[in-house]
Amino acid sequence: MVLHDFWTFFIWSTVAGLVVVGIYQLLLLILRARGVFVTRTKFGLTMIFDSEDADGTPIRLLNVNGTFQSVSYIEPELRFELCVHYHRMMAEIIQQVAARPNWQKNVTGHPRVVVMGGGGFSLPKHLATHMKSAAIDAIEIDPKIVLLARKHFFLDEALATASSELHVIEDDAWKVLQDAEASSIDVLVNEVFAGRKSLGPLGTPAGAQTIKEKLAPGGVYLADVRCSLEGRGSALLPQVANVFAHEFAHVAYVPEWPDTRKTPGNNLLIATDEDITLPEGAVVVK
User: pLDDT tens, 239-249?
Assistant: First the structure.
């Protein structure tokens, strides 16, 4: 009787497994038939597909484990322009810092921007092709994501046409930051994601202290904090802002959806000891 029950369970489990695999393969075939590139990367199922923005301009999107991580224009003349608003705000702040007379205060002797998190490399590509005589380090932990960026998001094209140095580093961004020299970074950008989670140790007091140590005098820290302003998960933004307020003279954030506060958004956190012009809509914490 026990042996019979075992074989019954084994047969039905096998059938169920084959059905699940069959459905998964069918789903992949349907997606690919619709022009969606599907693969697996370090943090889960990854999809790349083309669409249009609100103005009808062709765009390409990268989705990892259910979270959109990058978007890029497809047309050759637009490939290194920025699609999303928080990236444009980041770029404006970086350009503002670059225009300061004391821009080259870091110990490396040249302007340095470090972007933690690569994805489709939207911001690093833009900076490298719109700034002169700067060094941009873009750190991505997953080599397969880097290969996808080269193949689908025009990374090699940006490297070939860049007016500033763009270094692609395949490593853990937190480790790279810890190993960096003190006062060696002018602007640090945090876009590190693991699926739906962001910030990790960079949102802790120890992380804030490390960032303060690695930034040059007057350096700026920019982070994309993904959460809503009210409701579930909304405590993340004020919590992180308060952590950085203990280390920096000026802390602010720009909410993506100030009028629909329960909608999760890409909220831009800004921390610095320097007086800078904040983007429109910024909420000053300190």
Answer: 999 999 999 99
SS3 86: helix
- In angstroms, the CA 201 to CA 285 distance is 21
Q: How far is 74 from 71, CA to CA, in rounded Å?
A: 10
Q: Can you read off the two tokens belonging to residue 267?
A: 């909220």
- Decide if 71 contacts 83 (C-beta within 8 A): yes
Q: Which of 122, 116, 121 is nearest to 139 (CA)?
A: 116
Cβ atoms of residues 252 and 270 within 8 Å: yes
Q: Which residues pair with 45 in a beta bridge?
A: 40
CA atoms of 79 and 11, how far apart (whole Å): 52
Choose among 20, 25, 70, 24: nearest CA to 47.
Answer: 70
Bridge partners of 224, per DSSP, are 268
Rounded-to-integer distance, Cα 192 and Cα 12, Å: 42
Three-class DSSP labels, 111-163: CEEEEECCCCCHHHHHHHHHCCCCEEEEEECCHHHHHHHHHHCCHHHHHHHCC
pTM: 0.86
For residue 199, CA distances in Å to 202, 222, 236 come to 5, 11, 10
Closest alpha carbon to 104 in 6, 233, 218: 218
Strand partners, 116: 139, 190
Q: For strand 197-198 and strand 193-194, is the pairing parallel, antiparallel, or unpaired?
A: antiparallel
Contacts of 277 (CB under 8 A, 6+ apart): 96
pLDDT tens, position by position, 52-88: 999 999 999 999 988 888 999 999 999 999 999 999 9
State the Cα–Cα distance between residues 246 and 244, nearest whole angstrom. Answer: 5
